[in-house]
Amino acid sequence: MNGEVSALAAAVTAVLLVVGAAIALIGSLGLLRLGTFYERVHAPTLGTTLGTACVAVASMVYFSALGSRPVLHEVLILLFVTVTTPVTLMILVRAAQLRDTYENKPPASTRNGS
Amino acid sequence: MSIVLAWSIAAAQTLLCLAMACATFRILRGPRAQDRVIGFDCLYLNAMLLLLTFGVSSGSSLYFEAALIIALLGFVGTMALAKFLLRGEVIE
Description:
The structure holds 2 protein chains of 2 kinds.
Chain A: H1 7-33, H2 37-40, H3 45-67, H4 74-102, H5 108-111
Helix pairs in contact in A: 1-3, 3-4
Chain B: H1 3-29, H2 33-58, H3 62-87
Helix pairs in contact in B: 1-2, 2-3
């Protein structure tokens, strides 16, 4: 069912796929390992920016080589994820700060001793 | 499909499944509600990347549309949960 792609396109796709997946895994490991919520917010953005960019570019390269024409619709996913993630995380952190204020916890800047 | 590409797709899918397992663990364990919400955010994003790798391995562009829908609905879901944590109501 699959057509053959050139060796160069296959190699570029392979490298970009593995790098993107590894970056997403590093971000998720950071989500798992870091201590407080305000540190954990930072980690998954590694996957949303560079991880998504690598995988989307790999998909673009593969389908362009497969169809012998430029296939660019993965740019939609890349653009959408890059734009929406900061909006979501900003509202989430604001909610977390509000909940901390309600429960009389110290603000985030003094909790880690930094 | 070349053997290198097949193996790298398998490796990428394994890594993304591990990343989804990390996010699921954070959802289950997360001490507070906002930890679970950010775990959900990470989970749907990794699922979207996994669908893109499925699309590369099968060669059909159907998976791309599924990934786009996951990105759209995941954003809406996370935003609704964050708004709920912020005000206690989703739509004001």
